[in-house]
Amino acid sequence: MDAAPGAANPHPMKAKAKSKPRRWLKRLWYTALALGLLGLGVIAYANVTAVWASRGRLFDEVGALPKTRVGLVFGTTDRINGLENLYFRYRIDAAAKVWSSGKIETLIVSGDNSSKYYNEPGKMKQALIDRGIPAQRIVCDYAGLRTFDSVVRAKEIFGLSSVLFISQRFQNERAIYLAKANGIDAYGFNARDVVTHAGIRTKVREIGARVLMWLDVHLLGTRPHFLGEKIRLPG
After folding, report:
1. If 0-12 CB within 10 Å is exposed, 13-18 middle and 19+ buried, where does residue 62 land?
2. How far is it, in rounded angstroms, from Cα 99 to Cα 106?
3. DSSP assignment, residue 184?
4. Domain spans of the chain, in order of start
5. What is the C-alpha to C-alpha distance for residues 178 and 120, in angstroms, rounded to an integer?
6. Torsional class of 81: left (φ above 0), alpha (ψ -120 to 50), beta (otherwise)
7. Are strands 83-84 and 79-80 parallel, antiparallel or unpaired?
8. What's residue 223's pLDDT?
9. Region 89-99 average pLDDT
10. pLDDT, tens digit (0-9, with 9 covering 90-100), for 26-73
11. Which CATH superfamily is 53-220 part of?
12. What are the tens digits of pLDDT across the range 173-203?
C-alpha cells in the first residue's frame, strides 16, 4: 500500500545513502574545475609575463641596438637527426651580424657540454670563428644547461650587470624575464625564427618552459646546476 501524502519516508537511510555520493561527486567536480582554472591561469600568466618583461627591450635591427659590452648566444646543437638545425644557423647569423655592427666587444656562447660527445659552446665558437670573429673575443660557458643557468651564470660567474641576449624571440623574452628577476639589465637581438614543423613543436614546449621559468623565480628557489670560480672576460 502506498504511503499517505505527507507521511514520513519509509526508507530514510537509503535516501541519505544516495545523497552522500552525489554530494561527494559534486564537490570533487568543483574542486577539479577550480584546480583546472587555476592551472590555466598560471599557464596564461607565466606566458604573458615574459612578453611584458621584454617590452621595449627586443630588437630586430642591429642599428637600433644599444651598445653593450657583452653579447650572450644561447646554445643549441648544430644538427638534429643528421640534419642541419636552423636554430643553430640563425643564431650564429644573428651573432655575426651584431658583432659586425660594432655594438658588442665580447661574445659568450653558453650551452650544454654534459659529455665529451656533446659540446654546444665549442661548435658555436668554431662557427663564429668561421665567420671571422676573433677567437680571443669568444668565451665558452660550458655549463649553460638551460636558459636559467645561462642567465644566472652570466651574473655570478662572468660578473655581468648588463648583457645582450642573442637567440630567437621566444627565448629572448624568457631570458629577459629571468635577467630582471636576477638584477641584470638585459636586451635581446632576435635571430630569425624557424617556421618548420620542428619550430611548431618548439613553440608548444615553450608554453611549459615559461611556467617553469615562473616557478623557478617565485616558488622553487632554483639555482644553476653548476657554478664554480668566477671567469674574467676579455677587457
Report:
1. middle
2. 8
3. -
4. 53-220
5. 21
6. left
7. antiparallel
8. 96
9. 98
10. 777 767 766 776 667 778 878 889 999 999 999 999 999 999 999 999
11. HUPs (3.40.50.620)
12. 999 999 999 999 999 999 999 987 767 888 8
